[in-house]
Amino acid sequence: MVEYNFLKESELHIHYGSNRYNVKITPSFSFSQTFAEDAYEVKTLHDQTKMFQGTTITKANPANFSFAIHLTQEKDENIVLNLLTDYDTTSGEQLLKSFDMYVVSSESTLKLEGCVITTGDFNFAKDSPLILEVSGAAKKLSRVGDESYSLPGNLQSASTTRTPTKPLLDVEIDGSDVSNLVTATLSVQNNIEWTPYETLQASLSVTSASNAIYPSKYSLTDRVVSGNITQFHTSGNSSEYQTFDTSTNIDIKTIVGGSMFFHANLDGCMFTKRSSPGEVFTQTYDYRLVTSPSDLGTIITY
Known about the structure:
Elements (H helix, E strand, L loop, with lengths): L10 E6 L2 E5 L6 E3 L2 E6 L13 E7 L2 E8 L7 H8 L1 E2 L6 E2 L2 E6 L3 E18 L5 E8 L1 E7 L7 E2 L12 E6 L2 E2 L3 E14 L5 H5 L13 E15 L11 E13 L2 E18 L5 E8 L10 E2 L1
Parallel strand pairs: 2-13
Antiparallel strand pairs: 1-2, 1-9, 3-6, 4-5, 6-11, 7-8, 9-10, 10-11, 10-12, 10-16, 14-15, 14-18, 16-17, 17-20, 18-19, 19-20, 19-21
């Protein structure tokens, strides 16, 4: 009997260092990898009837993935935040932490090798659970076994409960509370460039996907921390209409049970403020971190 793979029955495991984490994700999970085609002309002066181009396929494009997690009170998802923000300096360079992901379904175990998280988005909406959406790139996607494949690493224990949070949002700009707050967002963008990995000698030996050329190294070109903060336009803040600042501090906190749960302490930001007319007028700060912190993991915590 034919067995199908169902996403809702699958598990996501992150293998980093010697440890493995069974990460609980939302249904919005995707991953894929494509091969690069090089087309070439086959029509010649002596044979004008060949109207279709020939092709060679020798290398794979970087794989991509995306998933979302609830930031729960138990904080079992802390590994994902660390992989998004922290540096790996073991090589002497400032690189992102690389890890492997395993997707275990009822029929197959798939492996995404050499993953890095390139984007992380937080959306602090009222009466909504706090969710972190991440996306990234990997070197290779492959099927490594069936559902009973032995995963590497020491499985880390998880809490017996998972409690999503609907936190109280508190935002300060230069130490002053943002009044009439509606919502806020925070995004971390890690921009990378893959090192060219195709050579003529290697391409000549490619016969199938099993010995195709896969990406191997990348460089981190820059990092962008940005977002926006939206407030209602009222008589209390009308004096701040259409303003900007090139050096300010932005502090985003979420409060759960009277205690601080999530904290982004962004010292050294710029912002521009714009008006948005609607049923109720609002004003939005579009901000970006312009200083260079030694480690994002020390200023974005939960």
